[in-house]
Amino acid sequence: MIRVLSQEDMQRWDASRIAAGIPAEELMLRAAKGLFSAVEELRCDSELVTVFCGPGNNGGDGYALACLLAEAQIPVQIISLAKPEQLTDAASFYCKRAALQGIRTETEWVPVAAELLVDAFFGIGLSRPITEQYADTIARMNASGKRILSADIPSGLAADTGAVLGIAVRATVTVTMQFYKPGLLLGQGRAYTGAVRVCSLAEAEPVDIAYPIYWQEESDVAALLPPRPFDSHKGRNGHALLCVGSKQYVGAALLSAGACLRSGCGILSVVTTDPVRPSFAALPEAITVPTGTTEWNAEACAFAVNALTSKSSVGVGCGIGSGDIAPLLEAALRSGLPLVLDADGLNCLSRNRDLFKLLHPNVVLTPHPGEMARLLDCSVAEVLADPIRAARAFPCTVLLKGPTTVVSCCERAVLCTEGTPGLAKGGSGDVLCGIITALLAQGLSPFDAARAGTYLLGTNARKAYERLGERMLLASDVIAVLQEQYGKDH
Fold it and tell me: Is 464 helix (H, G, I), strand (E, B) or coil?
């Protein structure tokens, strides 16, 4: 996995390297060398490089870059909107060096035809909206159509959340220093960063981080899903139980069950109401458990509770609708079984807050931001403002859905970026619930099942998208591709 450091942890890492004997000016020079390499790749012959410098260490990286460009006889100018007294000591060092080298420095940008722009206005420490001259200049940079290289993070993006603080630079390439920052992946970050490269500043000695964050890679998930042994049988692969469906939402039951079967569980039982059962003729591999009821009520819950016996994992909530499943939810939580709560399972939990105390490490919650807001009794905007913080709110695994999905447990968080806009359709969550339930049945930990499930949904949706396009993509198409891919390896 790729390590991701928050603003606070990155600043502590910087301080630790300085304490270990690397001067701040040397770290700044190393950052400038990383930017210089990117300039060499992006720049066309005879192009002027215009470096926009702000008041902090990010601006210092820009001044140091300008010095390197001048030494290499690459035409360069500096646009400085900061007063000299606003500069940090290290930034002031390179600002003075640039002046000694005779590099032209202006306080207002006048574009020229052949020009590459470097954004070194603000780094990860920005905490308030950009206004006035900085905002006007960034707006002109974005509107210019010119290529823009950003230092560390596009100016205006919040380092921890990816929120746009008033306005933000839309970079062509971002050279981030030493580690990815959450804001490069979360919120609106991915729409502003362009291609991201990591510039190494020093040996990545660890700092004491209470809650590490990672970005998931394909190899991380491949290690969780090894090929099955030749003597594998259904008993080894788990007996999953889904409590899903209602007369209004038959499709949710079928989608979750189909995904669960395609994801490799050995046996699948489905408790659903009587109006849904006939539709399972299309999915004969699933064992349906009749409730004898037309809706989810106390009697249906009693059948579902009895079905919990001897199961490897349980998924509750897809398509249940407005029925009251609180008795089922309580029994499933008390059972200690690996449990996925999705959709109406989450809604029931938010209406029965006394059940929060029964949440335990074997539980996986899979909310979208609206469901998360109901669970936390806050606004959706508050959830989106800091999704990692929101996902850490419960003593279990939380999979907070989004363009970048956050999978969190009590010890760490993983950011998953495998999705596609084509998944923004009904049924995608049902498929995800089925996948995670199957992976739990096969013995994966809740945290690993959640992050692997997100990967399988996202990557297979991307393959389906390549065939069909985002607007044509259906959740059931993901199951079809999942069958092809997962079947090859399992």
Answer: helix
